[in-house]
Write a structure and sequence with these properties.
Layout: E1 7-10, E2 13-20, E3 23-30, H1 40-50, E4 58-65, E5 75-79, H2 86-98, E6 103-110
Parallel strand pairs: 4-6
Antiparallel strand pairs: 1-2, 2-3, 5-6
């Protein structure tokens, strides 16, 4: 999103649009700086409502602390919303289910920063 025009879509959440391999991408992220991620579930719902019939997939990308023996940068893939906060995960799953989308999750492993992880 670095080189793309961003707009605020919900409290503390921004969105930018681009293309990748002839696919239209609507990307959202926490506005930052800081650890507040806002309301991504409400943002996803707003974007789906703004683009009726155009959204075909929801992909969540997040970082997670790696286990001992795992390499930094290692990627895990799965299904379902990836969020450390149950309410955010519920809102994302609710929106996806109501609109018949599967939520794909991509997790990138990283070193523990030494800071306390909030859940």
């Amino acid at each position: 999103m670095k080189d793309h025009e961003k707009r605020k879509v919900q409290k503390d959440v921004v969105v930018a649009e681009t293309t990748l391999e002839d696919r239209h991408i609507i990307a959202l992220k926490a506005e930052g700086p800081g650890g507040n991620v806002g309301k991504p579930g409400d943002a996803i719902k707003s974007l789906i409502e703004e683009n009726p019939g155009r959204v075909t997939m929801v992909v969540m990308i997040d970082a997670a602390v790696k286990f001992e023996g795992e390499n930094s940068g290692e990627i895990s893939e799965g299904y379902g919303p990836r969020s450390g906060h149950r309410h955010r995960a519920f809102k994302i799953e609710e929106t996806a289910t109501n609109n018949r989308y599967t939520v794909y999750a991509v997790i990138v492993k990283r070193e523990h920063s030494g800071k306390r992880l909030h859940r």
